[in-house]
Design brief:
single chain; 267 residues; alpha/beta; Metallo-beta-lactamase, Chain A; eight-stranded mixed beta sheet; seven-stranded mixed beta sheet; 27% helix; binds zinc ion
Length: 267
């Protein structure tokens, strides 16, 4: 059984990641417009109504934008934790199937996940750790100001990790952003810098980690080559897999869980 991972795009203008197994198609976040999401799915030969479930990590628009509309139009099950469903105005149990953080949830015939709470602004954000059978684990983590012990525990044994590398510390500090915004981004409830992502990964990288995708890069305060080199600097002695960057425009590639090969997508 394999898990195919395709980032439809990632950044402050929208996030969505498609997971495909033999019997399940699941979206993590649905932060683009409905039209844009369907257009991106069509580039890999998928239709919206093939999506079984949509998991929303938190209430911010770049993760939740068209989730409810998509779930109604495609007849897919919408999942979030209770706090996010309340913030979104989704009636728990009617529009949205709510889950408790750290409980295992079956979101497809052959795919389950655990939501791990992570600190981010006033949101009740979660990292998603999926399991596609035989303990084939993959992690999807964006929008957090710092790591937690619980998160690190769940990252152990993951064969794929998608994680944000939001900003370069120097670029952020030299940017024209107001001081208060700089503090918010760099604070406990903000985002991870390239350095912080590298540090976190250096604690959890193991020989079975085959693929790593850096995502949610700031367009103003980061650049793909800076993020990649900073992260690799922290992990290169232990990491022997493949590293890629998911940009705002996608989809660009598909990973197969556990495999080093990447399939490029022609747009
Ligand atoms: Zn975000
Ligand atoms: Zn957010």
């Amino acid at each position: 059984m394999s898990l195919e991972i395709t980032h439809l795009g990632s950044g402050s203008k929208g996030n969505a990641t498609l997971l495909r197994t033999e019997e399940s198609n699941v979206l993590i976040d649905c932060g683009f417009s409905l039209k844009q999401t369907e257009k991106r799915l069509s580039r890999i030969g998928m239709k919206g109504d093939e999506i079984d479930s949509i998991i929303v990590t938190h209430n911010h628009g770049d993760h939740s934008n068209s989730a409810k509309r998509a779930s109604i139009k495609w007849d897919s099950v919408l999942y979030s934790n209770i706090e996010t469903s309340i913030k979104m105005g989704w009636e728990p149990m009617e529009i949205c199937r709510t889950f408790n953080n750290l409980d295992r949830v079956e979101c497809g015939v052959d795919l389950s996940f655990i939501a791990v709470p992570i600190p981010h602004d006033n949101a009740d954000n979660v990292a998603i750790i999926t399991n596609s059978g035989k303990n084939e684990k993959a992690a999807f983590i964006t929008d957090l100001g710092q790591s937690t012990l619980e998160l690190k525990k769940h990252l152990a044994g993951c064969k794929h990790i998608s994680i944000e590398a939001n900003y370069d510390q120097k670029k952020l500090m030299n940017s024209s952003y107001p001081e208060s915004l700089k503090r918010r981004i760099a604070g406990r409830g903000g985002h991870l810098s390239n350095y912080q992502t590298g540090e976190l990964l250096s604690e959890v990288v193991h020989s079975k980690l085959k693929s790593l995708v850096l995502c949610h890069l700031s367009e103003k305060n980061n650049a793909p080559h800076i993020a990649e080199s900073e992260v690799l600097y922290h992990i290169e002695e232990k990491f022997c897999g493949n590293i890629a960057i998911s940009k705002q425009i996608g989809p660009e590639f598909t990973h197969f869980l556990g495999a080093e090969e990447i399939k490029k997508i022609r747009n």
